[in-house]
Amino acid sequence: MSGDLGDQQAATVGQVCFAPGEAKNTYGTGNFLLLNTGEELVRSKAGMLTTVCYRFGDQAPVYALEGSIAVTGSAVQWLRDQLGIISGAAQSESLAAQVEDNGGVYFVPAFSGLFAPYWRSDARGAIVGLSRYNTNAHLARATLESICYQSRDVVEAMREDSGVSLDVLKVDGGVTANELCMQMQADILGVPVSRPVVAETTALGAAYAAGLAVGFWNDTDELRQNWNEDKRWSPEWSQDQRETGYAAWKKAVERTLGWVDVD
Q1: Nearest 5°: phi and psi at 249?
Q2: Prediction pTM value
Q3: pLDDT tens digits, residue range 61-72?
Q4: Are residues 210 and 242 in contact, defined by beta-carbon separation less than 8 angstroms?
Q5: Burial readout 94-117 (b: 16 or more C-beta within 10 A, e: otherwise)
Q6: C-alpha dist (Å) from residue 47 to 44, 66, 158
Q7: Which residues contact 216 (CB under 8 A, 6 or more apart)?
């Protein structure tokens, strides 16, 4: 065996996040966001996990902060399978695009509690801010926004722990095919979002580790040159829009807490 990496660690290597402060977010049924903290092992006080990111040969291990989010892409599946308002995941984009904003609706998909950074098993899902005006398009948009707001929660916690502010977020996984969602992610974070040409970053990262081990590549600089961007989304919201929306999201999260009595 020449290379052995965990799933999310491999994706981080596949996204060539080799410098402290570089981060990737994998969008699947849930989300997994890793921030490279370099050779410093950062003990989180804000709800993150501390993990070994990678170690190449005799070099010192590189650490990361990891934030796990339970329900992101699976919230879109819920719209399809439980509510029946879309026929397929791709339709969430076209439906959400029918409205210019969420119409005041926020959806916190805490179906099984909230993971990072809250770790609240007593939380349950809530759709708040509804009025007679709202439509299924607003709910679809709120669902996509929930993916992005939960990711911002993790980014904010990582900033609190590490003192590092993101310059760009590298993204991979199935939801990145939803270009409206990726634009929302850039707007809600306030930093550019970058999707690579090679979407299978986990397999790519494992191949990179093995290639370094056997000398196919000499160093991580060669790997950086091998990485290519497919598309980049830049923030379009004003700072006021961003902070007003995030404050409403945090208010919605509060409504989910304490719903279930946990012994």
Answers
A1: -60, -45
A2: 0.95
A3: 999 999 999 999
A4: no
A5: ebbeebeebbebbbbbbeebbbbb
A6: 6, 9, 9
A7: 210
